[in-house]
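re: the backbone from monday

yeah here it is again, tokenized this time
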């Protein structure tokens, strides 16, 4: 059996300058290292350090080398660790009686300057030095074993021992999913005695997992369950979760993971490559965690295995190393290992973008001994221990570049005459066979510069270079049937500037062109090293600009060129992998948006695969500063505040007057994918676009966005959150939403054993199986504020360094008690997206969104203490005011101290809020009451104790005192609105008043009318209509003398007196009429006049029967609406304190992700209401949901409409039938392979979407064949 063995450990420094090698022997007394400089591999340096004797039996070794630790650059640290992988935990006190002693683990740190041992530690494991560039002479070392992750930061200026002080060591627990893989699983007892297995198999598997988990400065954890693949990427520097990668495996993928996972991160940390077992490679976009492409691997011989993957050539290529086992027929249990190199050009559309070769000189490599890759350089080790560059390997060099070998050299076109035509040999040719001539119809004069070259001997492929474009056209039919109606555009590249040809070389189906445009140069090598898709999208943008410049002239010709370019883009829409890779490398969607390509964008965003969205477009962020060489005639570099395609769509609406269709397409695409795949990565560009929507008067799209279901059903991945049982219980019992103050990170280990035992004592209970789900706000950085340079903080707490530490306690107490925090945000431009939403939105609808409620609840948990502080201060203010008028001198003295202090605090609060918000603050009834409740008591207090000489009568002062007291206690009730239950009641009352106030004002006008009529009538009417009430005294005694029998008492009525005549004045008349609505008809029975009867009857009908019942009906409707809206009332009221207490610089208060546990009933209710509102809108628009769904299937776009174009992949006429399947899916036969590779198994790397369709088609074909056989049988 052929195999490759490893006798040494090797490591490269994080800066990629030094390589260290260690070869362990059976008994080690001296550590012997070999140090190589990558710039001079021919000579090496030996380093020796004596140690106590170590028995190498059953030990595993790990080595690492640091960057320079001194300013001179002469000293580095070499760390060597040995450990026994049989240990389940690396406890140095654990004994192994079975093996005659304890397990051994040790770590040494050696200086390369003097070969001295800096320190040693009993902690052993996989060891690494991190690449920390934030500070000089800062060394971060980590050790990973089954017991956890140990990290220590050391400065070279302080000579201390690594891992010598437990209090200085940061200890992290291993992630839960990794512990599951490392934990030994109990196996059922077999009936038959199994074949004995090596004792180290489990240990070796654990070792492989630990080795593969550390990539650069990151710790990777992979899990796979229920066809859901999840990768957790933690930063080893901070311990925080950097990114979460999720994808759903296809139904044809294997359920069992074979082999250890392999990770590779690109040099610029843009792409993560991942291999799960042996059958596929997945690329992820590290900006948002979204899957870019998955390539399925198919072979025809033996069992294939991917042993290593690495990014090379400025992250533009992926080097894949495969191993294939070929079983030998003549020998039992023997096989031959074939090693195959594969180079994948990630961002080209060339048919030969994936090249492979079987090597006769295999590299020594496995999971724990991968190729050394640092800063774009790759190294491997030979059998004799020498280091060499992988790029110098002849087989790697032969497939590294995509140049097609040809015996014929390229012909240089030297005499570039204007409008000249050349053949492929560089000779002048006939103009009669031109495929196309006027390729830039926007020029008013047709004599513009252009040069044409035929790229084949049959003159059926034409390269034409003109002022602004480079185009390749081709006839799609045979040479005998040339017809210009069958010509197709095969390649186009354009720019707004005029281009100049520096060099032009051609040969059969190939050209090499170097051009310049003022200060920039560019080399185009077609078809080997170009991206046709990027060039076509860029050209559509340029053509749209040229069409505007040309106006109506030659409009049909420009339209024809645009349509041909659109067909070229559509051709690559079915090439799923290359389209996604192009979208993350080049701003193709930006070009389409600026070029107003609505139909093309609609087709891209809604492309279906098996009735599911293909997701061929991936959102991305652009650089802050870009070169405007395509748009600026000066070619200068300008700052570009636009960061995403969504922002470009918004700006195009504002600046160019484009329709909002593209913006709606993008919002739907992001939100619907986030819902379907439960992945918030689709929304990571939306947060920063929200303020731009408000800036451009597109508020309706913000409201439209937050009605998307993803804002209520996006579930969180909980293992990295480490949710406490207490928080889970609180969430289970939450009436609406319970926010979680958690951060996804590695769990810290506690060095305090007693504290850990106490913690376990109180958290011993198990959580219920019916725990509510944890959700996440699907807007990363929703609460994060934009970075502002040179912003002076107004918070006094930021300047505490200026105060003496001896007075810090007193200063803090004074600041918390009497100093109100001032606003840290200067204008709406410096607000976070969340702050902008609550600043702009005053309606209740958006506050019903679970996402907004969750963020408000999270923010309120931090602002609550300031609110409690404020309400306590006001209650003290109110109580001291009330008791200040008591007769007890002690109480009055206390109140005389408390009232001015609290009043001063409240006055300062009002002044600060007035400064921050302006006078429009007092357009709110709550703020008016708040101002009155502060000023009125203060004015009364000042009058009582400072102006006693001005004595007001009790008839004046007591009403003022009573009214002031009423306002104060109403303010106390209003302050309760920040709590959920009282807040509902306050909102309902105020809402009813606001809704019925217009009708009530109209009703009062009727009352005024009736009151005025009664005033006029009863003021001038004569006394004849007045009915006096008469009382007669009757003597019922038996006395003979009736002294009182003739006494009669009559009522004396003065019509001008208010108590005798309620209608004697206008105001009293109106008041009396108003009380008719309450059933008070006083004094009307003492008038005997038909006019009074008529008016009172009309008043009874209009005011009582009609208006009063209408008022009740209005109040019922207002109550129902207010009751519906009141569920979010407390959250809206809290925005006042949240806005005032925002801390832009606080990472704790503004995390990137916010998690919460909602009430499921609330989520269901919101989803139903949102769906109902959407259906109502569609119904009003005269549309039907079913028709809308059918219209979004885009069945009218057939991918086979351009089959004639799909055969043109630059392969000549011989391979036209197969070129469609080759393209970017790269089912290719490489042409750049040495002759000794003819027996190499041709591996096929197929896009997973195509692989799934192929598998389903094959399965259906087998079923059909079996059915036919059984039927005819």
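seq for it, each position gets an aa:
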């Amino acid at each position: 059996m052929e195999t490759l063995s490893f006798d040494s450990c090797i490591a490269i420094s994080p800066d990629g300058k030094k390589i260290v090698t260690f070869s362990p022997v059976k008994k080690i007394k001296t550590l012997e290292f070999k140090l190589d400089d990558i710039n001079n591999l021919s000579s090496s340096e030996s380093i020796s350090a004596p140690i106590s004797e170590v028995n190498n039996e059953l030990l595993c070794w790990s080595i690492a080398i640091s960057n320079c630790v001194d300013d001179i650059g002469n000293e580095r640290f070499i760390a060597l660790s040995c450990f026994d992988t049989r240990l389940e935990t690396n406890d140095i006190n654990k004994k192994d009686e079975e093996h005659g002693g304890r397990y051994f683990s040790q770590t040494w740190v050696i200086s390369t300057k003097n070969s001295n041992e800096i320190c040693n530690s009993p902690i052993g494991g996989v060891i690494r030095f991190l690449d920390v560039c934030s500070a000089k002479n800062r060394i971060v070392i980590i050790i990973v074993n089954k017991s956890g992750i140990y990290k220590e930061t050391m400065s070279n200026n302080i000579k201390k021992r690594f891992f010598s002080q437990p209090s200085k060591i940061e200890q992290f627990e291993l992630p839960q999913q990794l512990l599951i893989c490392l934990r030994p699983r109990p196996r059922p007892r077999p009936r038959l005695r199994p074949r004995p297995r090596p004792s180290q198999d489990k240990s070796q598997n654990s070792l492989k997992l630990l080795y593969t988990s550390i990539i650069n400065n990151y710790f990777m954890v992979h899990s796979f369950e229920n066809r859901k693949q999840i990768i957790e990427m933690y930063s080893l520097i901070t311990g925080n979760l950097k990114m979460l990668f999720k994808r759903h495996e296809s139904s044809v993928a294997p359920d069992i993971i074979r082999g250890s996972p392999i990770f590779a991160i690109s040099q610029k940390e843009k792409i993560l490559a991942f291999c799960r077992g042996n059958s596929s490679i997945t690329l992820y976009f590290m900006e948002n965690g979204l899957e870019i492409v998955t390539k399925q691997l198919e072979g025809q011989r033996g069992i294939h295995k991917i042993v290593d993957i690495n990014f090379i050539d400025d992250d533009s290529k992926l080097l894949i190393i495969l191993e294939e086992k070929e079983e030998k027929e003549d020998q039992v249990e023997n096989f031959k290992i074939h090693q195959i190199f594969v180079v994948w050009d990630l961002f080209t559309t060339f048919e030969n973008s994936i090249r492979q070769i079987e090597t006769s000189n295999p590299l020594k490599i496995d999971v724990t001994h991968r190729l050394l890759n640092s800063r774009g350089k790759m190294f491997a080790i030979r059998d004799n221990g020498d280091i060499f560059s992988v790029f110098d390997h002849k087989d790697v060099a032969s497939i590294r570049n995509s140049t097609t070998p040809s015996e014929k050299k390229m012909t240089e076109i030297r005499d570039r005459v204007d409008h000249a035509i050349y053949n492929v040999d560089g000779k002048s040719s006939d103009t009669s066979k031109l495929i196309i001539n006027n390729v830039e119809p926007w020029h008013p004069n047709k004599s513009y510069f252009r040069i044409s070259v035929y790229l084949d001997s049959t003159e059926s492929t034409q390269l034409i270079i003109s002022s602004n474009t480079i185009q390749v056209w081709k006839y799609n039919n045979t040479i005998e049937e040339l017809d210009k109606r069958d010509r197709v555009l095969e390649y186009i590249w354009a720019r707004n500037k005029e281009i100049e040809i520096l060099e032009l070389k051609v040969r059969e189906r190939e050209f090499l062109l170097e051009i310049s445009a003022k200060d920039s140069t560019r080399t185009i090598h077609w078809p080997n090293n170009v991206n046709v898709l990027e060039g076509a999208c860029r050209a559509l943008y340029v053509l749209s600009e040229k069409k505007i410049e040309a106006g109506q002239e030659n409009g049909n010709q420009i339209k024809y060129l645009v349509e041909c370019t659109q067909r070229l883009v559509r051709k690559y829409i079915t090439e799923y992998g290359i389209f996604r890779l192009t979208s993350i490398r080049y701003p193709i969607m930006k070009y389409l948006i600026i070029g107003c390509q609505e139909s093309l964008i609609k087709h891209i965003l809604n492309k279906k695969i098996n009735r599911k969205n293909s997701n061929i477009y991936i959102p991305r962020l652009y650089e802050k500063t870009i070169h405007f060489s395509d748009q600026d005639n000066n070619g200068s570099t300008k700052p570009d505040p636009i960061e995403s395609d969504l922002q470009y769509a918004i700006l195009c609406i504002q600046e160019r007057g484009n329709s909002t269709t593209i913006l709606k397409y993008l919002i739907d695409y992001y939100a619907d994918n986030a819902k379907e795949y439960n992945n918030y990565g689709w929304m990571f560009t939306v947060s920063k676009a929200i303020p731009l929507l408000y800036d451009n008067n597109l508020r309706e799209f913000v409201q439209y966005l937050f009605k998307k279901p993803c804002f209520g059903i996006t579930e969180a991945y909980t293992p990295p959150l480490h949710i406490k049982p207490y928080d889970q219980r609180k969430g289970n019992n939450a009436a609406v939403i319970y926010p979680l103050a958690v951060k996804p990170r590695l769990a810290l280990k506690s060095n305090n054993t007693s504290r850990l035992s106490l913690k376990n004592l109180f958290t011993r209970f198990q959580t219920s199986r019916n725990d509510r789900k944890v959700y996440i706000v699907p807007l990363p950085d929703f609460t994060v504020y934009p970075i502002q340079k040179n912003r002076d903080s107004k918070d006094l707490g930021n300047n505490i360094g200026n105060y003496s530490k001896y007075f810090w306690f007193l200063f803090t107490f004074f600041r918390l008690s009497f100093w109100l925090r001032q606003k840290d945000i200067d204008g709406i431009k410096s607000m976070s997206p969340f702050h902008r939403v609550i600043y702009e939105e005053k309606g209740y609808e958006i506050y019903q969104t679970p996402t907004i409620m969750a963020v408000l609840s999270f923010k309120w948990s931090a602002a609550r203490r300031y609110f409690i502080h404020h309400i306590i201060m006001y209650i003290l203010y109110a109580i001291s005011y009330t008791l200040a008028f008591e007769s007890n001198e002690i109480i009055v003295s206390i109140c005389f101290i408390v009232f001015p202090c609290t009043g001063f605090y409240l006055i300062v609060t009002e002044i600060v809020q007035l400064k921050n918000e302006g006078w429009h603050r007092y357009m709110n009834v709550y703020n008016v009451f708040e101002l009155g409740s502060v000023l009125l008591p203060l004015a009364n207090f000042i009058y009582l104790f400072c102006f006693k000489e001005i004595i007001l009568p009790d008839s004046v002062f007591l009403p003022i005192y009573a009214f002031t007291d009423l306002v104060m206690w109403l303010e106390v009730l209003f302050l309760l609105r920040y709590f959920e239950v009282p807040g509902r009641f306050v909102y309902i009352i105020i809402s009813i008043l606001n809704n019925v106030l217009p009708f009530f004002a109209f009703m009062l006008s009727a009352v005024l009318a009736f009151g005025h009529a009664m005033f006029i009538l009863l003021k001038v009417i004569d006394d004849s209509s007045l009915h006096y009430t008469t009382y007669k005294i009757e003597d019922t005694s038996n006395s003979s003398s009736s002294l009182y029998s003739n006494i009669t008492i009559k009522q004396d009525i003065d019509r001008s007196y208010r108590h005798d005549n309620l209608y004697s004045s206008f105001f009293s008349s109106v008041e009396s009429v108003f009380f008719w609505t309450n059933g008070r008809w006083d004094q009307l029975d003492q008038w005997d006049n038909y006019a009074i009867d008529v008016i009172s009857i009309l008043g009874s009908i209009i005011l009582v029967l009609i208006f009063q019942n209408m008022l009740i009906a209005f109040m019922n409707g207002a109550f129902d609406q207010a009751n519906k809206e009141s569920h979010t009332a407390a959250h809206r009221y809290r925005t006042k304190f949240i806005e005032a207490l925002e801390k832009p610089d606080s990472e704790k208060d503004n995390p990137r992700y916010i998690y919460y546990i909602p009430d499921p009933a609330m989520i269901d209710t919101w989803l139903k209401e949102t769906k109902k509102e959407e259906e109502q809108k569609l119904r009003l628009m005269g549309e039907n949901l079913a028709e809308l769904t059918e219209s979004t299937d885009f069945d009218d776009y057939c991918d086979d409409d351009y089959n004639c174009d799909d055969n043109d992949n630059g392969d000549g006429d011989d391979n036209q039938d197969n070129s469609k399947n080759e393209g970017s899916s790269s089912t290719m036969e490489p042409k750049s392979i040495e002759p000794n590779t003819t027996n190499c198994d041709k591996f096929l790397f197929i896009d997973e979407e195509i692989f799934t369709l192929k598998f389903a088609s094959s399965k259906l074909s087998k079923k059909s064949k079996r059915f036919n056989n059984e039927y005819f049988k």
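Residues 575-626+641-705 form one domain. The mean pLDDT is 78.
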